[in-house]
Amino acid sequence: MTETAPRPWVVLNQTDIFVDERSGQQIGDTWIRAAGDGYVIELAEARANAELIVRAVNAHGDLVKALWAAEPWLEAEKHMPPCVCDACETYEMIVAALDKTKTSC
Ligand SMILES: [Zn+2]
To answer: Which of 12, 25, 31, 74 has the fewest CB within 10 Å, making it most exposed?
Structure first.
């Protein structure tokens, strides 16, 4: 996901799940169809999935920005490997999370 992805997304209803609220454009839904077998997840689960996706998308930019801000501070505090103290573990989690944001989609 890039910073240019329109936000905020919202849960529009239980079948047309998340949209760019400004344009009214539907981005997707969380219905899953089994081949020839109709809907395989309950409406409430689809709704919960949609709400989770919308929260994640809407928070994404702020979370990435916070991680980039924290990374140099924690990098300066970390110790030599293989230390597994809280500061070092937190730094490794931040580096791993930031690496995932570099994946193009
Ligand atoms: Zn340490």
So the answer is: 25
**Does residue 5 fall inside a structural domain?**
no
- SS3 assignment, position 102: coil
**Inside any domain, residue 43:** yes
Q: Report if pTM > 0.90.
A: no
pLDDT in tens, 45-87: 777 777 888 888 889 889 999 999 999 999 998 999 899 999 9
Residue 97 Cα, ligand 1 centroid: separation in angstroms?
19
Task: Measure the CA–CA gap between 11 and 51, rounded to whole angstroms.
Answer: 6
Q: How far is the CA of 63 from the centre of ligand 1 (A)?
A: 23
